[in-house]
């Protein structure tokens, strides 16, 4: 009797997963790229850095070399203890379109990236703001142009893709890239569906006046993470938000080099999701829960050999639907090399997320760097 009930629950879970992949995530993966008009609007690129001296040396020249007629770079030094400030100053001596914002430590905002970012936004000369991190590199010299061209009279928020650089013979790197891909497919799809809920600070653009109309980060300043996703969740609507997935618009950063560091990073990111709007929490939570239940029931039903032929057929059907959608997404987002590994990575990621959720119930990460 119990085995029968588990089988029927399994079929319901398969149906739920199919609905997400076929009717939500396909919205992005089957979306055609459309050409946007080059606008050449003045843009302020804002980079907040804390102890990023080596990354600034390596990646800042790639921002400076952007093929765009009118942009400034606002470098925010968040009280670095290394040579970050000196590196910034060395670049300002050679490039007039760079300005530095020096942040003095304040106990109330210790470990909170939103405070230095706010100061950088206030210092920006232009209304159109483009954000990335100090450890990110744009994939091309057309990054600013590609992102900025998506601003219109009605679209004041542009969600971009921030990928993870590949490493040979690294299973962890594949897992991080797969998680990044899956997250991007989700937030691009929901935005295309008319329900934008998050973006990533590695590649995000919005108008300065949108920031101040929303009182900046004040509604969630007490939460040390979420300068990107919580802000987007707060202000994004179907009318003011668009997505940019032109391959020239991508940025890439190095993934974490140990499972422990990655788990800590994801714990910090995950705690912000409980502050999302209720409809987003419900839809995302239902998806992740159905993923976990799918894998648990698949294992249990195979071990117990309950309706084995049907179970295997349903597993194949679910994986087929998932792979078709995600392979299309991987091609769009330049992650073709993950295709062979996707089933294994999906299984491993689901249980990694369970570990992260459990750890966050015990304690919370304390700061952004």
From TrEMBL:
Pfam family membership, one: Glycos_transf_2
Transmembrane segments: 6-24, 282-302, 308-327, 339-362
GO molecular function, one term: glycosyltransferase activity
Highest taxon, organism lineage: Bacteria
InterPro entries: Glyco_trans_2-like, Nucleotide-diphossugar_trans
Keyword field contains Oxidoreductase: no
Record keywords, A-Z: Glycosyltransferase, Membrane, Transferase, Transmembrane, Transmembrane helix
Domain annotation Glycosyltransferase 2-like: ranges: 44-178
Name listed for the protein in its UniProt record: Glycosyltransferase
UniProt source species: Paucihalobacter ruber
Source species taxonomy: Bacteria, Pseudomonadati, Bacteroidota, Flavobacteriia, Flavobacteriales
